[in-house]
C-alpha cells in the first residue's frame, strides 16, 4: 500500500480473503469479507471487470457463511452473486457466468426460495 501499487494491492486483498474465508472462525470470516469487498472496489476502480466479479464471488461466499443472521446472509449473497453474474455476462465469460449462477442457486436454496426442498428433484 505504501508504494500505491493498486493492482498488486487488490490481488493481495483477494488472496487474503480467499485464505481466510474457509477455516478461520468468525474473525477470519469478517476479515475475509472486508478484504474481498475492498478488492472488488479496487478492481472496479481499475476497470478490471473479471477480477471484480471474481472478488464479488468471494464476498458472496462469505455472506453465505454468516452465522449471526443466515437468512440475511443468504439474501445478501444472492444480490452479490447477481452483480457478479451481470459482470460476467457483460464481458462474455461463460465460465464466470456458470460460477455466478451456482452462487445464485446456493443463495436461493439457503433462503428457501426454490421449490426444491432437501435436494429433491423438481416436479
Write up what this structure looks like:
The chain has 123 residues and is mainly α. The chain has one domain (6-111): Serine Threonine Protein Phosphatase 5, Tetratricopeptide repeat. Helices cover 76% and strands 0% of the residues. It is built from five helices and no strands. The chain has helices spanning 6-21, 25-46, 49-64, 70-91, 94-111. Helix 1 runs antiparallel to helix 2, helix 3 packs antiparallel against helix 4 (70-91) and helix 3 packs parallel to helix 5.
Short description:
By secondary structure, the protein is mainly alpha-helical. It has helices spanning 6-21, 25-46, 49-64, 70-91, 94-111.
Strand-helix topology:
Blueprint lengths: L5 H16 L3 H22 L2 H16 L5 H22 L2 H18 L12
CATH structural architecture: Alpha Horseshoe
Regarding quaternary structure, what we see is: single chain
Straight-line distance between termini: 54 Å
Order of helices and strands: HHHHH
Please provide the count of β strands: 0
Strand coverage percent = under 5%
> Portion of residues in helices?
over 70%
Radius of gyration: 15 Å
How many domains? The number is 1
Brief descriptors of the model:
123 residues; mainly alpha; Serine Threonine Protein Phosphatase 5, Tetratricopeptide repeat; 0% strand; flat
Amino acid at each position: 500500500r505504501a508504494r500505491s501499487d493498486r493492482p498488486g494491492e487488490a490481488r493481495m486483498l483477494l488472496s487474503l480473503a480467499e485464505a481466510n474465508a474457509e477455516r478461520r472462525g468468525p474473525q477470519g470470516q469478517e476479515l475475509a469479507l472486508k478484504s474481498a469487498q475492498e478488492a472488488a472496489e479496487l478492481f472496479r476502480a481499475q476497470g478490471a471487470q473479471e477480477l471484480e466479479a471474481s472478488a464479488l464471488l468471494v464476498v458472496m461466499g462469505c455472506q453465505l457463511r454468516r452465522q449471526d443472521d443466515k437468512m440475511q446472509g443468504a439474501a445478501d449473497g444472492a444480490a452479490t452473486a447477481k452483480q457478479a453474474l451481470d459482470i460476467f455476462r457483460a464481458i462474455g465469460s461463460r465460465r464466470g457466468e456458470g460460477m455466478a449462477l451456482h452462487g445464485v442457486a446456493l443463495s436461493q436454496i439457503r433462503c428457501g426460495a426454490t421449490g426444491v426442498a432437501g435436494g429433491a428433484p423438481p416436479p
